[in-house]
Amino acid sequence: MDVVAACRAFVHVSERGSFTVGAAAARMSQSVASRRVAALEKHLGGQLFDRTHRRAVLTRFGRDVLPAARRLVRAADDLVLEAEAARRGPVRIAVPGTCSTGALARLAAAARGHGILLEPRTAAPRERAELVRTRQVRAALVAVAQEEAEWSVPLGLAGRDDPGVRRLHVETLRVGRTDTGPPRRIWLGPEDDVPHVRDRMARLCDAVGLRPAQLAVAADLASAAAEVLCSKDLLLCSPAQAGELGLRWCPVGGVELGRGFTVAAGEPEDAERIRTHLTGAVADCLGAHTPPGGGSREAG
């Protein structure tokens, strides 16, 4: 017995209360729907419909098993869609949530110019690596230390006011004895809540005497930006992000900070296609530059 086909008939008939209408919705004849429901009842060992009524009325047993039947039908439909997508050969790629919709659209358009159907999916740093490992995506732009990076995004501090300096030194945020207001904080978004950025920033803050609470990690970038926009706090971000948020950006004095990215993939050829054809497009999407030698593989 085709359990999926039988469940499909069962679900459509139950939703419409009629074997005739339900069978038509399932694109089968009434006789086929009746046979499949009867076969499913035999397979499950219980009656699904009360046949003493003119309409298709679910029995208690039918009501109990209907949710599972729906899930099976949905799963079968999802499988067909996934198989169709696999035949088309799309490259699902996990990307940072800091990439704007416009930047992702331009990246996908550039990929099509090289015959690559790219399907970006935003995800947090830890999630991106896991999505590749579990083969839920074919590739990901994963966060790495700058010395391991194929793309590097400069980071600095941004606030709502012009800092009036070319480089902002973190020690200027130190709380003095005569200060009465709340301490100014440095906010990190989820993309920078990774050891090679967060820990380095924490060591810098500690070295110049900032309080531990002056370095804060937000649940999302919007929340961090909101804190900065309504206070004198600062956001660790890229120049492009500062521009989008209407903030004044400045490099950090005494240290070079940046996000590093490399491409990881379940199959080496997927990673190589991205490196070969899309190095520059990925850099533009990230708001990054490529470290020395990183752009040599760009083919156009």
From TrEMBL:
InterPro entries: LysR_HTH_N, WH-like_DNA-bd_sf, WH_DNA-bd_sf. This is LysR family transcriptional regulator. PANTHER family: HTH-TYPE TRANSCRIPTIONAL REGULATOR (PTHR30126), LYSR FAMILY TRANSCRIPTIONAL REGULATOR (PTHR30126:SF91). Residues 1-59 form the HTH lysR-type domain. The keyword Transcription regulation applies. Keywords: Transcription, Transcription regulation. Belongs to the LysR transcriptional regulatory family.
